[in-house]
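Bug: token stream looks shifted between consecutive jobs. Job 1:
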Amino acid sequence: MTNLKKRRARVDAAAAEQKENQGVYYTTASSCSELDTSPPPTPKKGSDLLMRTIFTFVMAVTFLVTQYVGQTLGIILVLTCQVLMFREIMRIARRRSLEEALPVNKTLPYYMLIVVNILLVSSTMRVPLVRTWPGMEYFLERSSFVAFTLYMFGLIAFVLSLKPIDILSTKLRLKRGSTTSQGKPKQIYFRYQFNQFGWLHMGLLAIVASSSFFLNTMMEGMIWFTLPVSCVIHNDSWAYACGKLFGRNPLVPTLSPRKTWEGFLGAWFFTTLWAVWFAGFLSNQKRFICPKVHFLSPIDCDVSSTFITTTYDVPELLWAYFGKTFDAKPVQLHAVAFAAFASLGAPFGGFFASGLKRAFNLDDFGDLIPGHGGMVDRMDCQLLMALFVYCYVSNFVYERGGICAAVGMMQYCVSRLNVAEQVSLFNELSSELRSAGVVIRDGVAIV
């Protein structure tokens, strides 16, 4: 009877703390068996479907408007989604009863978010920022040192905010086993603060660093943002449709019981068709293929060979099916790779997020988007896709790599050289052009 009473007391304490922390996604009991596992009230399917449909339309319109306007609005969209995702991730392991006595813990995550964005944004958008506002060049050249200095201020503030447990000033309830072998109470504040500090850095890496890859590829051309994002969206839709029509065999039953192999593979096929067509469509519009080199000037550039139709040879074994040659734009072949990863790799970002939600006993990461859940619920696959696109574009599209991959970026890089270095570069280029049969008259190359 004594053990039963103690167990009931622990359950009551856990339930009381859960009520106190209402709205904060954190599980206080030591095991799921100690919590009330009765299912929450289920909303009406009709109203839920209606809200999901309405907000799907709203998100689609927002995305299309962003793509039409270009990189400037795209940057705002990415940074907004980043802040919302970071907020949802930080809420997962937060305990309100402890946060009341730790004010630094409330502000430090957002301070660190600003610091990391200063470093990532300044390095990603350095060229258009300097060309648009030349006075920023001095700061941008030293942005890494500025970010490190600000990070140190945050670290010092965290260390100075560390405090031992004070049972009299908190509503925290000590459970059995909350003492050390010497009989002293565990430093629960210390442990909680370091857990939160580690959780903060995980959020910065998983959310902020990953979303910065979107900014990086976006500056090379809006197509490298629009195309992969649309591939993930289409893959999700086709996986649902194919799973509903043909689904029989679960793909990852422990994490996502409704996902099937039939939906997984069917979505790959239809996403590939979409990607090839959409890549060809976008490649005809300069607003999507030109890099962003100035924020206040209209986008214009010479069309890269990546977006010009090329004739490819077909392997002899396939002549009977496809002929000896076929015409396609190189970007359409890249789109096949995007579709493959959006179908076969990016979904595991969603499975990872599902596992994280199960670990913390969550249905969704938030309720920001009615019918869809939180921002992380919508963007989990996109973050993995952003990393893939950045690595792929850097290695297979702009093989020269780095910030000088596009012509506009090269001009900026050359302008940063002194006169002697520019003369040396000009002489080397002139020599290479002459050896290639190009005639140079009065400093002008004649092909």
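Job 2, same session, no restart:
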Amino acid sequence: MAQFAVSFIFLSLTILEKASTGPEKDIVEFILADYGVTERPVKNKSDAVVVRVRLSLYQIMKLDIVEQSLTATYFHELNWVDEYLKWNPDDFEGVETVRVLKDQIWLPDINVLQRINWADVKSLEQALTNPIVEYNGRVTVQEPLYLVSGCSVNVKYFPVDSHVCQMNVGSYTYRPWEVDVAPAKYANGTSNFVTNMEWKLVNYTMHYREGVEPTGNFSEIVFRLRLTRRPWFMLLNTVMPTSFTGCLTVINFLMPCESGEKMGYGITLFLALCVNLLAISSMLPQTGEELPVIQKFLAVWIAMVAFSLFSTMLVLRIYHTEPSNKVPNLLRKLVRKPERFIKDGRNKKVSKNPNLLVLPGITCDTARNGDSTTDETGLNESLILLAKAIGQLGEPQRKTDWMRLAESVDKIMAISYVLIFAASFIYLTVVLSTREKITITFD
């Protein structure tokens, strides 16, 4: 009797234990019994394990032009058939799917070959999801993918540039006859894509590729994103300030030499352009293959401002040359002819004789050793000297030939600067508006 009671209690505990655990634990124990995690899950070792890959784009976080890397989030899915993970649902209360830990089953070493952020793999992805195993042996691994991948950029047409970032997904160690890859359904989906404010997604394509390299054959799926920059922010912060600074340089030629600010104004504009060039250079990768058009444009304008500084220095040097020095014969054609007559307040003409002073009612001839002739008799010498002084104060300062030469040189330099400025600006506009389009070719 006691033996029967012990048997009854043991049977009851076994039934209660099975009822509390459920069929999923039994399935896991059943399929993982004598399971080898390092063995490819095919019974015929000549067969390849076909892993289907899905990499749906969710959001573009950043395209770093300087570091040449793309940061984005994806929905990543891998699925394959494991011939050792099968069961009959009728034997386990009709349960068709179970979850297992990643370290309990065989997993393919499929990843993005251009990946940079390897330190984030374990902490961000592997702790979030577990593989789903179906009764027919199909294993599905789904996980969010925060990916920083290398991207070869072309900044020739910055800031209206377009880039193609490529991601190769394949196995690191297996050959195609061991583990092959294939695109899954919606492999390059963008239905849940979040719009980026800086970059516009033109297209997101994928294709299967096989090849041979020195280490052996390989197979992979190539995903490619084509991104185009939304240019208005960069245009307003790079091209427009530079253009305005270049236009302000024209004022340097219009400024009179007597102001004393021509050199200081030109140096200020030169430094402003140099700072702008440094700011744009910090946004671009340090490459010598092909300089961006905007950098060539800025370099030309800096040379033009330096040219304006040189011309200003030359003009000031000519302007302040002593009148006693004669203008060379080769430069005399640039000197404007002086006005023959100077009008006084009553629009009366001054005599061609520089020794005559004309005042209302008074005509003084200073070429006779201080003697003077007037139309009124009895005028003393002090009145004549006073009339001479008043006449000189009212007469505008006469320009020397050197001053007129400086004005002519300044005008020639200004016209040259405006022509070069307009040509460079038109060239930049045409090049950026007719930039060559990137065509995606599959190897």
